[in-house]
Amino acid sequence: MRIFFAPFQIALLLALNLAASSVWAASPIDVAVSIPPQKYFVQMIGGDHVTVEVLVPANAEPETYEPTPRQIARLSKADLYMEIGVPLERAWLKRFTAANPKMVVVNTARGIERMPMLRHDHDHGAAKGPGLDPHIWLSPVLVRIQAMNIRDALIKADPAHAADYLQGYAKLAQKIDQVDGDILQSLVDHPLKQTRFIVFHPAFGYFAAAYGLTQVPIEIEGKEPGPRQLGELITFAKNNNIKVVFIEPQFAQKAAKTIADSINGEVVTIDPLQEDWPAGMEAIATALNKALR
């Protein structure tokens, strides 16, 4: 039997279909990320088409943080999880996907070759340690790769807005270039007398590699240094005329202050987890530039 629709019925069906499409298009993609800088990248690319949940607060350590029940509940509704390789993910990601099997995990580090984590070496300042360094968001070159992976994942999840994601990526790429150029120009304008800097947690290896610097970490494989290691670092600092000890706001200052007091220096805070990524990168560069001139 053939069924015929009157013109007004066809118009009504089309209107309902368009309304349903509009509701779907207006619903943003729920994206979960591990750390605050990732939120900046996803929002720059996704714009109004995404909502972003950050697991690790800006004042917490990604190495030891445990998600709250509220965060786990929100993850059960996430469409995408942007993985970056921090320790939190190794401990929790399988549990997240078990609770939300429909959530797509996106490896934003795909195509990036990670460097080893550094530990202190009393002869040379730093040496390779066990494990790979997850702090890839502190290198503009590597952030470009992460941004491409985020862009492609959003397009795959929501092809209807592909043009918007391409435009958002282009704006982010321009901002990355600007940040990189400004940091390089500051180094040209103010040549450094020293290229090695002491920092509590070895989070700045990629930043250092990008700009010809070397970080010398206080922390030893995630632990506070003992008296012998502290003595070696103090001797290293005195021999190399280092007067500033850097520390991240997520860590206690005790060991850093011990070294700073012993060299008549100061402790300066630099934050690798600032959500405003350009401002965070420029703040790190400014602090290092001032200390190493």
Automatic annotation (TrEMBL):
A GO BP entry: zinc ion transport
InterPro entries from the UniProt entry: AdhesinB, Bact_metal-bind_prot9, Lipoprotein_PsaA-like, ZnuA-like
Example GO molecular function: metal ion binding
Keywords for this protein: Ion transport, Signal, Transport, Zinc, Zinc transport
Highest taxon of source: Bacteria
Pfam families in UniProt: ZnuA (PF01297)
Entry keyword annotation includes Plastid: no
Signal peptide residues on this chain, from the entry's feature table: 1-25
UniProt record similarity statement: Belongs to the bacterial solute-binding protein 9 family.
Name of the protein this chain belongs to: High-affinity zinc uptake system protein ZnuA
Record organism: Halothiobacillus neapolitanus (strain ATCC 23641 / DSM 15147 / CIP 104769 / NCIMB 8539 / c2) (Thiobacillus neapolitanus)
